[in-house]
């Protein structure tokens, strides 16, 4: 086993592409070290990306925000600008683990760990976030929902590393929100979760909408029918009911000790509805 | 397996050590450096008994590799008292009997120190939320919360 801490993305990609055996990328380590401890993975190479220039920063540009792959969720919570524009994304990131875990965990790690119940992912999918990926063939950008392909699996090719998560600058009258159901009040894995992102016109009519559900399918679901249920309407009772119905219908959950299929379907609708109400209010809708 | 050479700062002292690539900082502190204050409860970041402060962030040392401490600043429970003079939190934990078996106590003290450094006047809810990453199976938490409240008022007056 080797531990390396490259200083540039080019070096990191080169080392990763040229490695033989199992390689693991280390940012916060809150998933990796647990998996190593449990004997689920024994990497031949641990590639610590935290010394790479810029990867521990949140950069604000004219286009939006670039959240470096090594930015802790605690740091996201301390960024007033990010919280101001994307409160739903930040509240989702802040729900991951305890304060101790917050100081280490990252949304890029949350995405690449590819758990269907990952808290930040539905919020990122709803936000239309993109992943900036560096690899042997150069850089590419993909929608975050294209990264996880199933529990524990991603579409990243050998040698590829997510460098940052990109969020657009907000249009006026926009709001997002994330909610999850857990059986306790804090620090648990989502049984069901929902992220909603809305932009309204001057009359408070929904102009664009993205709704994503977590923990109800092998990957986070972007619910296209939910977009149709909301666009062109104010968020009245009929729109909310339609939203809940299509979200419940889109679920493909499993039965497990944390929740039954029936329960997850029902709660997905309830959470989508409540998250939409919060996102609508944040967008200034009345 | 070749060791990783690490140069870091622990409780203000420069420290150098060799560790294995997969060795946690908790194991380095306890087994290589003799700093046994941080405890291994779960080893998976759930219980907070191994809490330390790494570059001003509260973290579980069981979820940090020893190799990652290179060039960083580590604060452990061993650096909390000044000689015989206890930190106000330590003093108040004693006065309020905020411990029984004591395994969770170093983690609680470090977490509480981090909490009060960032929020010197926390509400009870903020204390309970701030310490939610630390598990105690003895006290029922109430005495811990009272001790932190009392320490906060002492430290504000100081």
Automatic annotation (TrEMBL), chain A:
<keyword id="KW-0560">Oxidoreductase</keyword>
<feature type="domain" description="FAD-binding PCMH-type">
    <location>
        <begin position="1"/>
        <end position="172"/>
    </location>
</feature>
<dbReference type="GO" id="GO:0071949">
    <property type="term" value="F:FAD binding"/>
</dbReference>
<keyword id="KW-0274">FAD</keyword>
<dbReference type="InterPro" id="IPR036683">
    <property type="entry name" value="CO_DH_flav_C_dom_sf"/>
</dbReference>
<dbReference type="InterPro" id="IPR051312">
    <property type="entry name" value="Diverse_Substr_Oxidored"/>
</dbReference>
<protein>
    <submittedName>
        <fullName>Oxidoreductase</fullName>
    </submittedName>
</protein>
<dbReference type="InterPro" id="IPR005107">
    <property type="entry name" value="CO_DH_flav_C"/>
</dbReference>
<dbReference type="InterPro" id="IPR036318">
    <property type="entry name" value="FAD-bd_PCMH-like_sf"/>
</dbReference>
<keyword id="KW-0285">Flavoprotein</keyword>
<dbReference type="Pfam" id="PF00941">
    <property type="entry name" value="FAD_binding_5"/>
</dbReference>
<dbReference type="InterPro" id="IPR016169">
    <property type="entry name" value="FAD-bd_PCMH_sub2"/>
</dbReference>
<dbReference type="InterPro" id="IPR016167">
    <property type="entry name" value="FAD-bd_PCMH_sub1"/>
</dbReference>
<dbReference type="Pfam" id="PF03450">
    <property type="entry name" value="CO_deh_flav_C"/>
</dbReference>
<dbReference type="GO" id="GO:0016491">
    <property type="term" value="F:oxidoreductase activity"/>
</dbReference>
<dbReference type="InterPro" id="IPR002346">
    <property type="entry name" value="Mopterin_DH_FAD-bd"/>
</dbReference>
<dbReference type="InterPro" id="IPR016166">
    <property type="entry name" value="FAD-bd_PCMH"/>
</dbReference>
Automatic annotation (TrEMBL), chain B:
<dbReference type="InterPro" id="IPR036010">
    <property type="entry name" value="2Fe-2S_ferredoxin-like_sf"/>
</dbReference>
<dbReference type="Pfam" id="PF01799">
    <property type="entry name" value="Fer2_2"/>
</dbReference>
<dbReference type="InterPro" id="IPR036884">
    <property type="entry name" value="2Fe-2S-bd_dom_sf"/>
</dbReference>
<dbReference type="InterPro" id="IPR006058">
    <property type="entry name" value="2Fe2S_fd_BS"/>
</dbReference>
<dbReference type="Pfam" id="PF00111">
    <property type="entry name" value="Fer2"/>
</dbReference>
<protein>
    <submittedName>
        <fullName>Ferredoxin</fullName>
    </submittedName>
</protein>
<dbReference type="GO" id="GO:0046872">
    <property type="term" value="F:metal ion binding"/>
</dbReference>
<keyword id="KW-0408">Iron</keyword>
<keyword id="KW-0411">Iron-sulfur</keyword>
<feature type="domain" description="2Fe-2S ferredoxin-type">
    <location>
        <begin position="4"/>
        <end position="80"/>
    </location>
</feature>
<keyword id="KW-0001">2Fe-2S</keyword>
<dbReference type="InterPro" id="IPR001041">
    <property type="entry name" value="2Fe-2S_ferredoxin-type"/>
</dbReference>
<dbReference type="GO" id="GO:0051537">
    <property type="term" value="F:2 iron, 2 sulfur cluster binding"/>
</dbReference>
<dbReference type="InterPro" id="IPR012675">
    <property type="entry name" value="Beta-grasp_dom_sf"/>
</dbReference>
<keyword id="KW-0479">Metal-binding</keyword>
<dbReference type="InterPro" id="IPR051452">
    <property type="entry name" value="Diverse_Oxidoreductases"/>
</dbReference>
<dbReference type="InterPro" id="IPR002888">
    <property type="entry name" value="2Fe-2S-bd"/>
</dbReference>
<keyword id="KW-0560">Oxidoreductase</keyword>
<dbReference type="GO" id="GO:0016491">
    <property type="term" value="F:oxidoreductase activity"/>
</dbReference>
């Amino acid at each position: 086993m080797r531990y390396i801490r490259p200083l540039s993305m080019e070096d990191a990609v080169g080392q990763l592409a040229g490695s033989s055996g199992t390689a693991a990328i280390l940012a916060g380590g809150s998933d990796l070290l647990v998996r190593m401890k449990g004997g689920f993975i024994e990497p031949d190479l641990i590639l610590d990306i935290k010394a790479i220039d810029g990867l521990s920063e949140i950069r604000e540009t004219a286009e939006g925000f670039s959240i470096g792959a090594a930015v802790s969720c605690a740091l996201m919570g301390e960024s007033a600008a990010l919280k101001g524009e994307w409160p739903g994304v930040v509240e989702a990131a802040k729900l991951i683990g305890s304060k101790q875990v917050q100081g280490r965990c990252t949304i890029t790690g949350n995405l690449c760990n590819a758990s269907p119940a990952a808290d930040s992912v539905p919020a990122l999918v709803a936000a239309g976030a993109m992943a900036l990926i560096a690899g042997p063939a150069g850089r590419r950008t993909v929608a975050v929902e294209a990264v996880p392909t199933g529990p524990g699996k991603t579409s990243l090719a050998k040698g590829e590393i997510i460098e940052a998560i990109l969020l657009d600058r907000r249009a006026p009258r926009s709001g997002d929100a994330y909610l999850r159901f857990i059986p306790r009040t804090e620090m648990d894995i989502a049984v069901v979760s929902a992220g909603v992102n809305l932009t309204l016109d001057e009359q408070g009519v929904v102009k664009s909408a993205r709704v994503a559900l977590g923990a109800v399918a092998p990957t986070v679901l972007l619910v296209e029918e939910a977009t149709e249920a909301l666009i062109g309407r104010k968020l009245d009772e009929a729109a909310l009911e339609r939203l809940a119905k299509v979200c419940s219908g889109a679920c493909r959950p499993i039965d497990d000790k944390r929740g039954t299929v029936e329960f997850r379907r029902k709660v997905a609708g309830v959470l989508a509805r409540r998250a939409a109400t919060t996102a609508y209010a944040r967008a200034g809708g009345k | 397996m070749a060791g990783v050479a690490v140069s870091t700062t622990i409780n203000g002292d420069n420290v150098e050590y060799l560790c294995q690539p997969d060795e946690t900082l908790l194991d380095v502190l306890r087994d290589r450096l003799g700093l046994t204050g941080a405890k291994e409860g779960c080893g998976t970041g759930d219980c907070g008994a191994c809490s330390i402060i790494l570059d001003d962030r509260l973290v579980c040392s069981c979820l940090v590799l020893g190799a990652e401490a290179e060039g960083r600043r580590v604060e452990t429970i061993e650096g909390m008292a000044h000689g015989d003079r206890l930190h106000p939190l330590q003093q108040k934990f004693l006065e309020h009997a905020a411990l029984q078996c004591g395994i969770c106590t170093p983690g609680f003290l470090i977490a509480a120190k981090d909490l009060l450094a960032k929020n010197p006047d926390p509400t009870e809810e903020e204390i309970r939320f701030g310490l939610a990453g630390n598990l105690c199976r003895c006290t029922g938490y109430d005495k811990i919360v009272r001790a932190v409240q009392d320490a906060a008022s002492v430290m504000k007056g100081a």
